[in-house]
Specification:
CATH class of the largest domain: Mainly Alpha
Number of strands: 8
Structural class: alpha/beta
Order of helices and strands: EEEHEEEEEHHHHHHHH
Number of domains: 2
Distance between the termini: 51 Å
CATH architecture of the largest domain: Orthogonal Bundle
Radius of gyration: 21 Å
Strand order of the largest sheet: 1-3-2-6-4-5
Number of helices: 9
CATH superfamily of the largest domain: Alpha-helical ferredoxin
Oligomer: single chain
């Protein structure tokens, strides 16, 4: 990888409010269709205490390099679109404030363990395929709505069993942090496993046995080495590592 000379806002007459502080934003640039190596391009960007990494990237995209490839949408850590590596750690760019990184240089790169589409954008095809394989929906005999359909009441204790796992926004950060994902291209991944538990733990669902058969595989739940990296990077407080251990309890007969 090579670094390109930094660019600053002073080099172009752009309408950006003057700031008292600035950082160097290093953006990984790479188009696998036309290039063989990744390069880093540096930009000097002003910021305030509330400026996010995504804000800084969009300043670059607006004022310096319109071609920067970045995926984003909600800007409030709800859609999971803007996952990337920020100073070496998988994180959401819209949720990460520059002022909280305590660094004069912010390096942004595409997430590991995903094919790069361009620059900071990666393909989620493998993750979505694994997620779909686990049947991420309630399976029930009365899944079709009829005139006799009634509300399925759950106690607070019932809901608590799966609630945190329903917060997954499919950002891919857990899969990016997982060391097994890097060594086994067929591993189902912590995201899909956590979602398998989300439905197995839901007392409205009758698909437990089907899901357990799917994950009871050499590239399934037994490939997890329990590094715990997946849980550390989740922006929504989901704990895939715990979900995997609880699923193992079902497979080993400790849970029913």
């Amino acid at each position: 990888m090579a670094a390109i000379a930094p660019q600053t806002l002073e080099e172009k007459p752009v309408a950006v409010e003057s700031q008292s502080k600035s950082i160097t934003l290093r953006i990984s640039k790479f188009n696998p269709k036309t290039e063989s190596n990744r390069n880093f391009v540096d930009f000097t960007i002003p910021y305030k205490k509330w400026t996010t990494v995504l804000d800084a990237i969009l300043v670059v995209k607006e004022n310096f390099d319109h071609s920067v490839g970045v995926r984003y949408s909600c800007r409030q850590s709800s859609c999971g679109s803007c996952g990337m590596k920020i100073n070496g750690k998988p994180a959401l760019a819209c949720y990460t404030k520059i002022s909280e990184l305590n660094s004069n240089t912010i390096t942004v790169e595409p997430m590991d363990n995903f094919p790069i589409i361009r620059d900071l954008v990666v393909s989620f095809e493998r993750m979505f395929s694994a997620h779909k394989k686990l049947k991420p929906y309630i399976i029930s005999e009365d899944s079709e709505i009829t005139k006799d359909t009634k509300e399925f009441l759950q106690t607070p204790e019932d809901v608590e069993k799966y609630l945190q796992f329903s917060n997954c926004i499919k950002c891919g950060l857990c899969n990016s942090a997982c060391p097994t994902m890097a060594t086994d291209s067929s591993f189902i991944g912590p995201q899909a496993l956590a979602q398998a538990y989300r439905y197995v733990a839901d007392n409205r669902d009758k698909g437990k046995n089907d899901r357990l058969k799917i994950i009871d595989d050499s590239h399934g739940i037994w490939r997890c080495h329990f590094a715990g990296s997946c849980s550390k990077v989740c922006p929504k407080g989901v704990d895939p590592a715990m979900a995997i251990q609880l699923l193992r309890g079902y497979l080993l007969g400790f849970r029913k």
